[in-house]
Design a protein that fits this description.
homodimer; 372 residues; alpha/beta; Isopropylmalate Dehydrogenase; Rossmann fold; 3 domains; ten-stranded mixed beta sheet; two-stranded antiparallel ribbon; 13 helices; 43% helix; binds 3-isopropylmalic acid
Chain lengths: 372, 372
């Protein structure tokens, strides 16, 4: 018996999570475990009506769970960043979910927008650092910044450049600080090396150390140090701009990649597209010793809300990752294979050229699972 | 008669620049102007033997030119960042080349890695800000940083998080600061709106304002302000992660995009790939009132150095942009159409399935131009 917290969120969130729960319940029935679902109401509606995002008390409660099943958040009525930072990133940071694991795998029968690429060409995993980098949320207008008196170098630069007087024109400048730590880099890089050892012993590090030399210089230093413990893993450094090219041209070059937070965000969306689109891309936010969270990597798609047409496969796949995390590896594999089965049988939503509704897909896969 | 400075640089740089010069000279012959080329030696060799990158005196001299023709820099023997920051970014910053203009256009006859996309689907321009953002080069280990005593908020965060003591463990943290100014954002956004007015009156802004709320919040504020002066241009905000998807899935949605420096770097490499690869992607670093620089956006490809096999088309196309910048619009258009002609006739290098050498392609296009 597992207790799993469930945060459906906004837009299509509740519909896809409901399909996902149905599948995980069926997996439990077949493999002999029960899931008790505890639902938490977070998202735009609550924020708009009460001003609340997620409370400290709720976060404390959530720490009683090993896994959270997360739908999606985001709503056009709310300023960009408020819900993302106040809920999604808040959970990632609060539980120190330092690994964001994103498989990029073209399932059989799925159409990729790339010419001449087959399932065997697109099968890699991006290990995205999930708690540092430019996601630390430190920044400001220079005027009101915590570091107002300190960013002397910035102010000098800009007073030469534009004749700005920092006392009167300080609202004119904004800065954003990214931070990387050796410890924070090491733990995620180590995780990626361990994963590479289990797969094809190839690991690519993605950064932009030729321009953002300070943070990504540290990253490379740590990567080189950690690599000494894995002499059998072959490694390479790639610049993020180049990686976007190779994902499109030669995805078969990659097996495991590890990357700081922001570039991880960008390349995994691209990865999602080459594996057939956001409807098919799951992610796990993992703290191996704490509370982890599993989610589709797509957003809340407000315009499809309530229509029962959203593709639930990313969410169901995220559910498979959740089961894996709980140690139910057989059940996890069975869920993934029922997803593949649903694709083969065209038991999918219309974005994948099927004619099922969101809930139908959940039911189809649940039944398929129970057939065994 | 024009004086153009020419910086061939490292690796394949000299070969592609030499092909490009041949073409621009031919364009001059046909359209009645002369180019006097002044060559500057910058790059890895000089740096390794003398420690010099580019001197203040050279930069002053270069300010006598309206245009610089740049090859490529980069060499495996030099730490990533040294040549890039010390030469390429130094020029961009010194001359305040705040517009990095990157056409993404699938020429007829060129193969794209995207399934089912045709030349009419891929034809847009990315206007990349080129002097701000995370390219300002401000960062450090906390230990030795200019802002050592000031990054209190960072230190507090990390002392809670990892129990780091900033006095003893300061080498453990690195930070990087990005800066955006209203003036710096406004001028490039204005340029992009002007360009959109001349094209299809559609402009997309690319940022990540839902996470890097400080810098990109300012960017959006400025974008909204500037947009008021262009009521006939329809606009939208896109997140950078999503843009990488749409480039691959629906490039036909885009016409003009404007974006801060770092995301511009990333999405234009992806753009280069969908237009057929780096061998075909030119860029202009433009200061409308000063010295501008034109270059292929690819690197120095050290392993192809001296082999006369590198594809010179990106460099020749950059030459066409250079002519445009000098006001030789007819000549610029003729160069681009001779490039297209060479592709049609398969008078290209082997990466494009032709069998010409780098220098042959230059000669072929020069002759084609002269035929008129
Ligand atoms: C919604 C947003 C904050 C988030 C991110 O940037 O991490 C999303 O894009 C993702 O990749 O999970
Ligand atoms: C070489 C590097 C510094 C440069 C950049 O990041 O701007 C390059 O990638 C480019 O896009 O021109």
């Amino acid at each position: 018996m597992y207790k799993v917290a469930c945060l459906p969120g906004d837009g299509i969130g509740p519909e896809i999570i409901s399909a996902g729960r149905k599948v995980l319940d069926a997996a439990g029935e077949r493999f002999g475990f029960d899931i008790e679902w505890d639902e938490y109401d977070v998202g735009a509606e609550r924020y708009i009506s009460t001003g609340q995002l997620i409370s400290e008390d709720e976060l404390k409660e959530l720490s009683n769970y090993r896994a959270i099943y997360f739908g999606a958040i985001g709503d056009d009525r709310v300023t960009p960043g408020v819900l993302e930072k106040g809920i999604l990133l808040a959970v990632r940071f609060y539980f120190d979910q330092y690994i964001n694991l994103r498989p990029v795998k073209l399932l059989k029968g799925v159409e990729t927008p790339l010419a001449n690429k087959k399932p065997e060409d697109i099968d890699f995993v991006v290990v995205r650092e999930n708690t540092e980098d430019f996601y630390v949320g430190i920044g400001s207008r220079v005027k009101s910044g915590v570091t107002k008196n300190e960013l002397k170098v910035v102010r000098d630069l800009y007073s030469v450049k534009f004749g700005l007087d920092v006392e009167t024109d300080a609202d004119e400048l904004a800065y954003q600080i990214g931070v990387l730590s050796k410890k924070g880099s090491e733990r995620v890089i180590r995780y990626a090396f361990d994963l590479a050892e289990k797969r094809s012993k190839k690991l690519a590090s993605v950064d932009k150390a030729n321009v953002l030399t300070d943070v990504y210089g540290l990253w490379r230093e740590v990567f080189n140090d950690v690599s000494k413990n894995y002499p059998d893993v072959s490694t390479e450094f790639n610049f993020v701009d180049a990686v976007t090219m190779w994902f499109v041209k030669n995805p078969e070059w990659y097996d495991v990649l590890v990357t700081p937070n922001m570039f991880g965000d960008i390349i995994t969306d691209l990865g999602a597209m080459i594996q057939g689109g956001l409807g098919l891309a799951p992610g796990g936010n993992i703290n191996p010793d704490g509370t982890s969270m599993f989610e589709p990597i797509h957003g809340s798609a407000p315009k499809y809300k309530g229509k029962n047409i959203a593709n639930p496969l990313a969410t169901i796949w995220a559910g498979s990752m959740l089961l894996d995390h709980l140690g139910e590896n057989e059940a996890a594999a069975a869920v993934l294979s029922s997803i593949e089965h649903s694709i083969e049988e065209r038991a999918v939503t219309r974005d994948m050229k099927g004619n099922l509704k969101t809930s139908d897909v959940g039911e189809w896969i649940a039944e398929d699972l129970l057939k065994g």
